[in-house]
Each structure stands twice: as structure tokens, then as C-alpha cells.
Amino acid sequence: MSLALWKDRLDYQSLLLGSVVLITCVALALAYQLTREPIRLALEQDLLNSFSRVLPDALYDNDLLTSQAVIERDGRPLTWYQARLDGEVTAVVFPITAQGYAGNIEMLLAIEANGDIAGVRVLVHQETPGLGDKIEEARDPWITEFSGTSLSNPPSALWGVKKDGGHFDQFTGATITPRVIVREIHRSLEFFTRQQAVFLTPLAEPDLSTSSEEAQEVSDD
Amino acid sequence: MTDYSRLAKDGLWSNNMVFAQMLALCPVMAVTATATNGLGMGLATLFVLVGANLIISSIRHLISQAIRIPVYIVIIATLVTLTDMLINAFAYELYKVLGLFIALIVVNCAILGRAEAFASKNTVWTSFVDSVMMGIGLTWALVAIGGFREILGSGTLFANADLLLGERFGFLEITLIPDYPGFLILLLPPGGFIAVGFLLVLKRWIDRKVETRAQKATPAADPQEA
Description:
The structure holds 2 protein chains of 2 kinds. By secondary structure, chain A is of the alpha+beta class. Chain A is 39% helix and 21% strand. Chain B has helices at residues 2-14, 25-31, 35-58, 68-90, 92-102, 109-119, 124-154, 161-165, 184-187, 189-225; strands spanning 156-157, 174-175. The radius of gyration of chain B is 20 Å and the shape is globular. Chain A binds chain B through residues 3, 7-8, 12-13, 16-17, 20-21, 24, 27-28, 31-32, 34-35, 38-39, 42-43, 45-46, 128-131, and chain B through 33, 61-67, 70-71, 74-75, 77-78, 81-82, 85-86, 88-90, 92, 95-96, 154, 182, 184, 187-188.
């Protein structure tokens, strides 16, 4: 049969490999279109869930996802979210990162307008199971100790773990993890104080979000 | 019929991906800190394996010998990416646990191994049966290793099963040893090697028991017949 002969020809082989790649690309493009929206919604929902863990519901009545802005921190853009109640700024929420014992510790920090911490939670980390992972709220209430603290409470000199003469507990067998978290939260409070003017100015509501989206689509075309 | 039972026996036990072929060890070590993770990873791999075997066996006559490996890899990589996107979109909680490891299925040589050793030489139907059996074999192996590490490492079994299977399966979550202090090394990567080692010993031991029993049975049966 001719197929057996064809199979050894270079043009058949290139064509075959090309068609396989083309078909798989089409399949991937279709799947991407199908899953793009659900993935976006899942990420959004995930972010909202994280917000509700650091920020009491009673503190805001606006849609946090739409009242976001970008500010520069340590030379990098930082997306932050503003919580408002009856138009008054009540709190700001932004992600912070500490260099942990085993990679980055991603956290979400909410600071009330008066400078008190509303809440802080660890979102992603790779700390040692059983030792450093007590920073997760599900495993240990340690991370909730930060709620209500501020730059002056405890005083700045005491913003450290007890082993370093500070106010906060460390874990048995894991000092580095709590130490970097305390330090990063303290740095973030200082950052908030420096940028207070920006953070506490009410952001302009996106009046007609639909029209701005349309405008974007037109410009895309 | 015996052909299918041989395929089943191969995939589930005697030629098991993990305990006999010793393939796929990268995802095995990485995800099996809990039985639930093992189950999720096993099912995702099963899906990719079945898809790859179906596609490759159905176009096996068209594929030239010279370019078969790149064709297999493109097909497998596509299936893995599809799985990744689907889990991300429709099982986000699970994705947060397994997401990092789903891409690892691409480098799971067992899938390429099945494509090369079986699907490229057999009909679509037998390749399907083979991939299902191999996939189930891999899944139970992952669950066994995960269960071993989870029970001894953190004193629970099937923790977070509701994230994988939905709320209805929350009953699977068992705390076997309350206030268990934890046995850290089993949860860390070395624990994966230790667990695979012990389970491998167990499998070989069972195999030998079965073998010696069969040997004893055969001479005993002969004089009766004679």
C-alpha cells in the first residue's frame, strides 16, 4: 500500500506533525475561550473570600474589586483596595510578601483608617509543615494576634518576636518564619503611615463601568 | 476475555505504574502528603492517560516511526494543558492544592511509556481498557502512599476530601488519632521515598507469598490426579 511508502517521506512527516500541532492549537484556543471567564470569576471570588477574612463585613459597603488603585512600593507597583462605609474611607487592603524560611510568604493585610490592623492572613507559603505552618489561621490562632495592633501599640521597639526582646510569640522550632512576618507587617504599617494621604483619599467611583469597558473594547479594535 | 483480565491484572497489580514499573515517581513524591491529594492527582493523570491512549491508538496507522515521539508529546502536553485549565475553571479549590503539580503530568514518563509501548500497537478499545486499568492502578497507588504518609504523619485520613469531591464526601475525612503530635519527616519529600519503599516491600512480600502458595498447591494437586 502507498501509505507505508508515504510515511517515510519528509513532506508527509512535516505535514503530519504540522497538522497535529494545528489541531491541538485549535483545541487549546477553544478551551481557553471556554475557561477564561470561569477562571476569572474563580480568581475574583477567591480574592473576595480573602478580603472577608481580613476585613470585618461591617467596615465597608462598597465593591472592593472596583475600588482599587496602584501605588509604588519599593520600586514595584502594588495594587491596593479601599474599603468605604457611606463614602468614608474606613480601611485599606493590600497584599504583602515576606521572605520566609522556604520561599515567599504571601499575605493580605487590612489596615483601618486610624492605623490599627483590621486583620492579616497568610494566603500562600511553603514553610515547614508542623513547624512554620502555624502561621496559617486554620492551624494556629497566632496570626490573629495582629488584629488591633498598630505602630504605637505595641511601641515600635517591641515589634519583634519574644526571642528578640519583642512583643510577639515565636513558635517552638520555628523562629525565622514569625520573625520575618512581624518585620514585614511593621514595614507595611510604616509604609501605610508614609502614604496615608494617598490611601485615605476616597477613590473616584468608576461611574459607568460598562461604558469604560466599551471604550476599551473600541480602542482594542 | 482473558486478554482483558490480563490487562486489568497488569495495570492494577503486577505491572503497576508505581509499584512495578517504578515510573511516575516525580508526582508521586510531590503530591502524596495526603490521601486526598493522591486521589486528585491520580484522577487527573487517569484522564490524561485515557485521552492520550485513545487519540494515539486511533491515529496509530498515520504516524510515521521517525516523528512518533514529538507527535505523542504534543498530544500529551495538550491534554495536560486542557486538564489544567478545566480544573482551574471548575474546581478552583482543588487547583489551589494541585495546580502546581498538574503541569508535572507532562513529564510523567508513564504516559509516554503507555503511548509508545501499548497504544501505538493496539486497537482503540484495548488501548482504552489498558489506560483505564493503568490509571486506576496509579490512582490506588497514590492513595495508598498518601494514606500511609497522612495517617503516620498527621493522624488523619482523607483530610480536605470535600474540596476534591464536594461537600457530600466530607464524611470521608477521618481524624484517626486526635491530638496527634505529627511525624514531620513523612510529610516532607523524604517521607515519600520512605513510604514508597515500605509499600514496595509489602507488595513484593505478598507476591512471594502468592507464589510459594501456588508452588505448594501444584505438587499437592498432582498426586491426587495421579
